[in-house]
Amino acid sequence: MSILHWLYFLFGLVCGSFLNVCIYRIPRRESIVSPGSHCPACGSRIRPWDNIPLLSYIFLRGRCRACGSPISPRYPAVELITGLAFLACAKQWAFTPPTFVNSLFLALIIVLVFVDFEHQILPDVVTLPGAMAGILLSPFQAEAVYRDFLTTGVTAALPWELSPPVHWTGAIVGALIGGGILFIFGWAYERIRRRAGLGMGDVKMMSMVGAFLGWRLALMTIFAGSLAGSVLGLFLVLFKGKTLQHKLAFGTFLGAGAAAMLFLGLPFLGWYTAPR
Ligand SMILES: [Zn+2]
Prior knowledge:
Order of helices and strands: HHHHHHHHHH
Bound molecules: zinc ion
Distance between the termini: 36 Å
Number of domains: 2
Number of strands: 0
Low-confidence stretches: 148-156
Strand content: under 5%
Number of helices: 10
Helix content: 55-70%
Structural class: mainly alpha
C-alpha cells in the first residue's frame, strides 16, 4: 500500500459520500447538487465537519446532531464500500486508465444496487448515461476484459501497457448482448408464466454492464446474479416462510454479480477453459 493507494481510498470515501446523496435523491426525483446535505428527519443543514465520510458517523454515534434521530447505517456502509472498490481498482490496474474507468463503473453499480434494494427501481438517469459512458470510455478500458478467452485460453489479464486500446465495437456488442439476452429471458418468462418477471430497468442495467465489461462477462454476470438470487430466494422460502412469489430486487444481485465478474470473471474463465 503506497501513499497513492491511501489517497485513492480516501478519494473513494468522498465519492461514496456523494453516491449516498444520489441514492437518496435520484429515486425521489430531487436535484443531486442543491440544496446541500440536510437531515432527512428534521431538515437541518449538515455542517461540513459533520459530513466527513465514516468519521462523522462514528463521532455522532449514528445520530443527527440537531434532532438526534438515527442516521441510516447505509451512509457509512456505502462510503466504505466505495473506498474499498476504488482501492481494489487501483490494486488491479495500478493507476493506468482502466483503474479510473472501472472505479466509475463500480460507482454506478453501487448506486443501482442500493436504489434497487430500497425502491425496486433502476433509474434510467443512471443506466442510460452509464451505458453511453461505457461505450465512450471503452478505448481506455483494459483490453483483457474484452479478450476472447474461450478461444485463446489466456489465463492472466494483460497489463494495460501491453494491451492495445479497445475499439468501440466491443462495448457496443457487449451492450446489445448484455441487455438483449435479459430482454429475451424476460419476454419468454412473460409468455410462459403470463406475468412480468423482469423489468426494463434490469435490461438497461445489463446493457451498461455489457458496455463496460464486454459480452462474455455480461453473460457471466447474469448467470452469477441469477444463481445468487435463486439461492437466497430458496433460503427465504425454506427458512423464513416467504412464498415463491416474494419479490427480490434482481438489480441488487446483478450488481453484486457484475462487481464479482470484473475481478474474478477472467481468472475463472481462464481456469475453466484451461486444458487439463
Ligand atoms: Zn435531524
